[in-house]
């Protein structure tokens, strides 16, 4: 059997919030561990996951990805007998040596005061036994390569190789948000970030078939699946937007087309959000990254809707966004060369500082209402879960 000890995130949360956080984290964990045969134990604000050795890889994948876990470690558990505890410490030290680590310290905590040694005694005794056994290892109390942790609780737990988790808040503690998901680099990262603040994520993709291909849509599905591994799955809404885009292209001044398309997307997304009881929209916009993302044009694109638009990437540099995209596994899909919906129009001189009153005057002249109703009515839905 393998035992994992989980360290929870955001320890500053107090009282009722904290209980709610733990309840939802436990529920998410149980849902994601389904099929692995793993079980969850919670005692005194600690989470343990126990599983068969054959399930270690899928279980560790879940622990790596679930929001709300600050860190986790595979632990040895043993009887609360000093000799058993010291043997486990020696085994742990052997593991460190195998991994090429040279310096260590031992830390001990004891919630069971019935254990015959206090934490100071556990530390010094374990430390000297390890030094005796492994002359290659030395103690460094300030910046050791590894810390061997001993915890005397219901059982004794010994571990050293702690891994960082995603941190953040468990998905489901902050309501639902609707992500505008394109096939690009930015929007998948934006969805990931808001899920990390506890939001449930639905996604909407605007498709302009046949100007955008089935492959382009497939790419979005695949991004939704990858992000879905962190967000407890994603429900993806696909909106056929060809007619709306054609109307904009036919009737609007060329330099305004991109801003008007964004306005139409926002309006349509808000209607889907209302239907799904989502409390906000989420986009991958980053200030001044492209012409449509100046603060003036952002004023235009949000001028027709009332829901807040969350833009977690607004102040983040492209390099940093790319780094996150690589870490979460969306980057390679995002850079596949399928066209996105803007191929219908890329005006050579787009409006850079649009004025909302003017934008709305043009928008209204397009008479989009019927086309928008139709697009909303024909929207399709699918659940994208991570293929395990
Ligand atoms: P991304 O990398 O996310 O595609 P981008 O840098 O290409 O962003 P834009 O094309 O200006 O920027 O899009 C800004 C935001 O608008 C995107 O991050 C996304 O949230 C939304 N968006 C753009 N196109 C679509 C689409 N076809 N379907 C859904 N949302 C879209
Ligand atoms: Mg894009």
UniProtKB/TrEMBL annotation:
Transmembrane region(s) = none
Localization in the cell = Cytoplasm
Determine the domain of life of the protein's source: Bacteria
Positions binding ATP in this chain are 180-181, 205-206, 262, 284, 293
SUPFAM superfamilies listed in its UniProt record: Adenine nucleotide alpha hydrolases-like, THUMP domain-like
What chemistry does it catalyse, as a reaction equation?
[ThiS sulfur-carrier protein]-C-terminal Gly-Gly-AMP + S-sulfanyl-L-cysteinyl-[cysteine desulfurase] + AH2 = [ThiS sulfur-carrier protein]-C-terminal-Gly-aminoethanethioate + L-cysteinyl-[cysteine desulfurase] + A + AMP + 2 H(+); [ThiI sulfur-carrier protein]-S-sulfanyl-L-cysteine + a uridine in tRNA + 2 reduced [2Fe-2S]-[ferredoxin] + ATP + H(+) = [ThiI sulfur-carrier protein]-L-cysteine + a 4-thiouridine in tRNA + 2 oxidized [2Fe-2S]-[ferredoxin] + AMP + diphosphate
THUMP domain location, by residue?
Answer: 57-163
Q: Which PROSITE patterns match?
A: THUMP (PS51165)
Question: Sorted alphabetically, which keywords does the UniProt record give?
Answer: ATP-binding, Cytoplasm, Nucleotide-binding, RNA-binding, Thiamine biosynthesis, Transferase, tRNA-binding
Task: Supply the InterPro entries for this chain.
Answer: Rossmann-like_a/b/a_fold (IPR014729), ThiI_AANH (IPR020536), ThiI_fer (IPR054173), ThiI_N (IPR049961), THUMP_dom (IPR004114), THUMP_ThiI (IPR049962), tRNA_STrfase (IPR003720), tRNA_sulfurtransferase_ThiI (IPR050102)
Q: What is its EC number?
A: 2.8.1.4
Q: What are the record's GO terms for cellular component?
A: cytosol
Function (record text)? Catalyzes the ATP-dependent transfer of a sulfur to tRNA to produce 4-thiouridine in position 8 of tRNAs, which functions as a near-UV photosensor. Also catalyzes the transfer of sulfur to the sulfur carrier protein ThiS, forming ThiS-thiocarboxylate. This is a step in the synthesis of thiazole, in the thiamine biosynthesis pathway. The sulfur is donated as persulfide by IscS.
Copy the pathway line from the protein's UniProt record: Cofactor biosynthesis; thiamine diphosphate biosynthesis
Q: Its Gene Ontology biological processes? A: thiamine biosynthetic process; thiamine diphosphate biosynthetic process; thiazole biosynthetic process; tRNA 4-thiouridine biosynthesis
What is the protein name for this chain? Probable tRNA sulfurtransferase
The record's similarity note reads: Belongs to the ThiI family.
Q: Which PANTHER family match?
A: TRNA SULFURTRANSFERASE (PTHR43209:SF1)
GO molecular function terms listed in the Swiss-Prot or TrEMBL record: ATP binding; CCA tRNA nucleotidyltransferase activity; tRNA binding; tRNA-uracil-4 sulfurtransferase activity
């Amino acid at each position: 059997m393998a035992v994992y000890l989980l360290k929870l995130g955001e320890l500053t949360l107090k009282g009722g919030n904290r209980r709610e956080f733990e309840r939802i984290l436990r529920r998410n964990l149980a849902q994601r561990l389904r099929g692995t045969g793993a079980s969850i134990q919670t005692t005194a604000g600690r989470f343990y996951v126990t599983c068969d050795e054959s399930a270690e890889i899928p279980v560790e994948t879940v622990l790596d990805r679930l929001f709300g876990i600050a860190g986790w470690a595979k632990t040895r558990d043993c009887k609360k007998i000093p000799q058993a505890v010291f043997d486990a410490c020696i085994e742990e030290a052997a593991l460190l040596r195998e991994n090429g680590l040279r310096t260590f310290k031992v830390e001990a905590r004891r919630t069971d005061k019935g254990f015959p040694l206090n934490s100071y005694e556990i530390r010094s005794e374990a430390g000297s036994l390890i030094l005796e056994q492994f002359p290659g290892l030395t103690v460094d109390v300030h910046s050791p390569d590894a810390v061997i942790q001993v915890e005397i609780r219901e059982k004794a737990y010994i571990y050293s190789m702690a891994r960082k988790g995603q941190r953040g808040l468990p998905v489901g503690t902050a309501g639902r948000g609707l992500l505008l998901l394109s096939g690009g680099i930015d929007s998948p990262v934006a969805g990931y970030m808001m899920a990390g603040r506890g939001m449930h994520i639905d996604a909407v993709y605007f498709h302009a078939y046949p100007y955008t291909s089935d492959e382009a849509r497939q790419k979005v599905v695949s991004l939704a699946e990858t992000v879905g591994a962190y967000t407890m799955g994603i429900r993806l809404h696909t909106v056929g937007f060809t007619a709306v885009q054609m109307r904009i292209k036919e009737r609007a001044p060329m330099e305004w087309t991109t801003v008007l398309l964004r306005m139409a997307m926002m309006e349509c997304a808000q209607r889907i959000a209302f239907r799904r009881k989502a409390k906000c929209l989420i986009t991958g916009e980053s200030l001044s990254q492209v012409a449509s993302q100046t603060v003036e044009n952002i004023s235009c694109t949000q001028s027709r809707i009332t829901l807040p638009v969350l833009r977690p990437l607004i102040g983040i540099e492209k390099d940093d966004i790319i780094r996150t995209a690589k870490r979460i596994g969306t980057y390679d899909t995002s850079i596949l060369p399928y066209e996105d919906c803007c191929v219908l129009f890329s005006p050579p001189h787009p409006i850079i500082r649009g004025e909302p009153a003017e934008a709305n005057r043009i928008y209204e002249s397009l008479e989009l209402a019927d086309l928008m109703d139709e697009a909303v009515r024909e929207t399709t839905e699918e659940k994208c879960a991570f293929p395990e």
